[in-house]
Design goal:
By secondary structure, the chain is mostly helical. The protein has 3 helices and no strands. It is elongated. The two termini are 29 Å apart.
Length: 73
């Protein structure tokens, strides 16, 4: 199993756990489903996580050298 697969599996597990935790926190006692606010909060948390991931990916990518730029890469 490659490092990328491990990181993806851990990310999926953490995301699922946080989503479930958020929805459980917005489910009233005895109710079958969470309130609408629970889905809204879970969506905003997911969007915030996506923004953090995009910023990290942009900051951590290797710089393009002048030689690579002239070759069209």
């Amino acid at each position: 199993m490659s490092f990328n697969q491990v990181v993806r599996a851990v990310g999926f597990s953490i995301g699922s756990a946080l989503g479930g935790l958020t929805l459980a926190a917005y489910t009233a006692a005895g109710a079958a489903f969470p309130s609408d606010a629970g889905y809204t909060v879970a969506s905003w948390l997911g969007a915030a996580g996506m923004c953090v991931t995009i910023i990290a990916a942009l900051l951590l990518r290797p710089p393009i050298t002048l030689a690579q730029r002239s070759r069209g890469r």
